[in-house]
Amino acid sequence: MAVFSYKAKTGAGLIMEGTIDAGEQRDAVDKLRSQKLVVLEIVEKQDSPLDKIKALFRRKGKVTSRDLVLFSRQLSTLVTAGVPIVQSLGILESQAENPAFKEVLAAVKADIEAGLSISDSLKKHPDAFPELYTSMVKAGELGGILDTILERLTNYLENSEALLGKVKSAMMYPAIVLTICATVTVFLMIFVIPTFKDIFSSFGAELPMPTQMLIDASDAMKHQWYLIVAFPFVVFKAFTKYYSTENGHKVVDRYVLKLPIFGMILKKVAVARFTRTLGTLLKSGVPIMQALETVAQTAGNVVIAEAVLQTRESIREGGHLSDPLKKSGLFPNMVTSMISVGEETGALDTMLSKIADFYDQEVDAAVKGLTSLIEPIVIVVMGIVIGTIVICMFLPMFGLGELAGKQG
């Protein structure tokens, strides 16, 4: 099976570029023509050594958020240009680089050709298309505004990815620096300190308590290194098992929101995600009860999810959206006040979008402030750790002259 790069024109005059798998060039052209494309150029693609290496390490069996964002953007463009949905899926299937996603798109295309609705076809693949995605597509089908819904979905997914990227960037720097610090510390303890131990033992004098404690710790790390290697894995496994329980999940998620500095950022991220998701769903015509259920499923934090579900029950009983959110204590007064105004004016979706935009900026500012704050803190921590080791090693040096005189 060869891979061919092509340039083709749709019936609406849209120029498409991509790749397609086929036995030979004639088969590739036939496949493209069956999708009602006019082939302008087609050549067999020769993989470079770098492409082959990437293919070896490419993750299989998982559809990533990047795949979904790219698919949504391309599908939105094709549908807006008037390309039929089946033909659009055929084009995107041929262009998909992820083998798992390619299989999913082929199955969705086959289901739609068999008479299934688009949303029902997508719902059969929850690992690729989350509940939020299928709910919005269903609303687009029912309202006859699928192109508009796909555009909103794409914007939502891109904003969510950008928000997640900001949080990851804030966590990445301290994680890397602390890993380097830990590696240097272990190296000093296992390889450098034993050398000093041999020098100190040749004088036969009693070592200062800090130095002796450090040497004892070095001996333990050197002779029981397997414990050091196993410790992180054991801790991670224990945490994962505890987090998988209902009570553990709730305790950890509640504690995470109360963490110094990080908790504030994660709470702002949660507010931004809640308002962005709910606003997008309501604007797309999804009923508020169904929208709140979907928001709870995509909250990413069980404490936030419970607050959203309580809000859903309040609305079911005739209450307002803002009141239970305020009682939860998880949402700032500014957020609940703006939601209340949106309910009273009938512009709740617009108000939610404005809140989401505001909190996106808040997260961005908080991440930049955190990065500038963490840098000196990490440097100080590294200095304290390394400095303590150096001081403990040099404490005996102050008495070496006296010891040497006595031995002389």
What does this structure look like?
The structure is a single chain. The chain has 2 domains: 2-129, Type II secretion system (T2SS), domain F (Receptor-associated Protein, Up-down Bundle); 164-408, Type II secretion system (T2SS), domain F (Receptor-associated Protein, Up-down Bundle), CATH 1.20.81. It contains 18 helices and 3 strands. The radius of gyration is 30 Å and the shape is extended. Helix 8 (146-201) packs across helix 9 and helix 12 runs antiparallel to helix 13 (288-297). A hairpin with a 5-residue loop joins strand 1 (2-9) and strand 2 (15-22). With 408 residues, it is mainly alpha-helical. Residues 56-60 have low confidence and may be disordered. The chain has a 3-stranded antiparallel beta sheet with strand order 2-1-3.
CATH topology of the largest domain: Receptor-associated Protein
Count all strands and give the number: 3
Helices and strands, in N-to-C order?
Answer: EEHEHHHHHHHHHHHHHHHHH
Instruction: Give the quaternary arrangement of the chains.
Output: single chain
Unreliably modeled segments: 56-60
How would you summarize this macromolecular structure in one to three sentences?
The protein is mainly alpha-helical. Helices cover 75% and strands 6% of the residues.
Q: What layout of secondary structure does this protein have?
A:
Elements: E1 2-9, E2 15-22, H1 25-34, E3 38-44, H2 49-57, H3 65-80, H4 85-95, H5 99-113, H6 118-123, H7 131-143, H8 146-201, H9 209-223, H10 225-243, H11 246-257, H12 262-283, H13 288-297, H14 302-316, H15 322-328, H16 333-345, H17 348-394, H18 400-407
Antiparallel strand pairs: 1-2, 1-3
Helix pairs in contact: 3-4, 3-8, 4-5, 7-8, 8-9, 8-12, 8-17, 9-10, 9-17, 12-13, 12-17, 13-14, 14-15, 15-16, 16-17
